[in-house]
UniProtKB/TrEMBL annotation:
The keyword Membrane does not apply. Binds 1 heme b (iron(II)-protoporphyrin IX) group per subunit. GO terms for molecular function: heme binding; lactoperoxidase activity; metal ion binding; peroxidase activity. Heme b binds at H240. This is Peroxidase. Removal of H(2)O(2), oxidation of toxic reductants, biosynthesis and degradation of lignin, suberization, auxin catabolism, response to environmental stresses such as wounding, pathogen attack and oxidative stress. Substrate binds at P210. It comes from Setaria italica (Foxtail millet). Its cofactor is heme b; Ca(2+). Its main location: secreted. Disulfide bonds join C78-C160, C111-C116, C166-C360, C247-C269. Ca(2+) 2 binds at T241, D281, T284, D289. CDD domains: secretory_peroxidase.
Length: 364
């Protein structure tokens, strides 16, 4: 996609602005993959501006990713590699819990676009002058945690030069952020061995990353095309128990939303600043726990895509997780789903599009 066209789309994305637009569901149409709020008109919904609705993403299920070639303890020859990442992440999250949320989301946005290859960290792409993933509508002005990854990479280059990939640093960092934000309840081994990619294109982001206005069927299709199933959609969505969201994405006008929360959100979003952010979990905003599922059932989640989990096929698992807050069921299954997500389309040996980057923001 040409840079100019992308810039136009980014403007359209930010046109969400100010007082939350009055609109209750996407009426079945998809604007920029669900990253832009459709506008109600007589007789239905349209996309804003001259935007043409996105085609529905076809269900093209892939087999579950196996992560062949990855293994736990991959960096035996740099025995402190994972400890170095954990230290950098713990320090960053202690200072600012939102960084932990940022790192978990960064991993998701990396893995879904061209696999877990750190393509989301590249400031430009090999072989193209088009903008890279970080400038795509789901990512721009939104992703955070880049500085934490860079700090970990710098520490690793000092300890074991040219050894640890940025893709693995992101995987370890997401795991460590989960550990810290859950107060140690989510504790798991993350396999390593990923290589870094060299290609990164903003235009690919909205095809594969579900947005806040994406309907559940399309979200399931997007996950299925990465080999993830409906259960993974439910289990991984629990990450929305930490971090924040910008006002333009939230649907505080949903008629079923808890009225107290809806009023509070409208107040906080009144400034009209497109980038004002509110916490996702109004009860335990900085703890990675199963509160999200209780919030789904209490009509106290921010996105249409969250609220949609409270329906037929996904409801039973939401209920199980919501009821198990003192157990460990969601925590255990979230850990397994993060490992599975970390297996998506990995590059496990050096090649034309796979290397150990020297600096995470630039291909070698
Ligand atoms: C299922 C479909 C999903 C949709 C539609 C979705 C959508 C969103 C949106 C719109 C935001 C707010 C971004 C902003 O305001 O700039 C957000 C934030 C977040 N998402 Fe998701 N997401 C999904 C799945 C996931 C998954 C699978 C994970 C990780 C496992 C995840 C982790 C997060 C986190 C941690 C944040 C907060 C980030 C921060 O505070 O910096 N999301 N998501
Ligand atoms: C929000 O975005 C709209 C559309 O791009 C723009 O006209 C407006 O000035 C922005 N408002 C703020 C406060 O940034
Ligand atoms: C990408 O950015 C790097 C660092 O700024 C630069 O050296 C390289 O030439 C750029 N590549 C392209 C294709 O623009
Ligand atoms: C909405 O949330 C508030 C604050 O947590 C709570 O006191 C109230 O009972 C909730 N209302 C409904 C209808 O669930």
């Amino acid at each position: 996609m040409a840079a100019a066209k992308l810039a136009a789309l980014t403007v359209a994305l930010l046109a969400f602005a100010g007082p939350v637009a009055s609109q209750q569901d996407s009426g079945g149409i998809l604007c920029l993959g669900g990253w832009v709020r459709p506008i109600p008109v007589v007789g239905g919904m349209i996309c804003p501006g001259n935007m043409i609705p996105s085609p529905k993403i076809d269900p093209k299920p892939s087999p579950a990713p196996t992560g062949a070639g990855l293994r736990v303890g991959y960096y035996n020859s740099c025995p402190d590699a994972e400890g170095i990442v954990r230290k950098v992440v713990s320090d960053a999250v202690a200072k600012e819990p939102g960084m932990g949320a940022g790192l978990i989301r960064l991993f998701f946005h990396d893995c879904f676009v061209r696999g877990c290859d750190a393509s989301v960290l590249l400031v430009n792409s090999s072989g193209s002058s088009d903008p890279s993933e970080m400038f795509g509508p789901p990512n721009r002005d939104s992703l955070r945690g880049f500085g934490v990854i860079d700090a970990a990479k710098a520490a690793l280059e000092a300890a074991c030069p040219n050894a640890v990939s940025c893709a693995d640093i992101m995987a370890f960092a997401a795991r460590d952020a989960s550990f810290v934000l859950s107060n140690g309840r989510i504790n798991f081994a993350m396999p390593g061995g990923r290589h870094d990619g060299r290609v990164s294109l903003a235009s690919e982001t909205t095809d594969v990353l579900p947005g806040p206005f994406t309907d559940l069927q399309t979200i399931k299709n997007m996950f299925a095309s990465k080999g993830l199933d409906t259960k993974d959609v439910v289990t991984l969505s629990g990450a929305h128990t930490v971090g924040h969201a910008r006002c333009g994405f939230i649907s505080s006008d949903r008629p079923d939303m808890n009225a107290t929360l809806a009023r509070d959100l409208r107040n906080k979003c009144r400034s009209g600043n497109n980038n004002t952010a509110v916490v996702q979990d109004y009860k335990t905003p900085h703890i990675l726990d199963s509160q999200y599922y209780q919030n789904v059932n209490d009509n106290a989640v921010l996105f249409q895509s969250d609220a949609a989990l409270s329906s037929g096929e996904t409801q039973p698992l939401v209920d199980i997780y919501a009821a198990d807050s003192s157990g460990n069921r969601w925590e255990t299954e979230f850990a397994a789903a993060m490992v599975k997500m970390g297996n998506i389309e990995v590059k496990t040996s050096p090649g034309a599009d796979a290397e150990i980057r020297k600096k995470c923001s630039i291909y070698n």
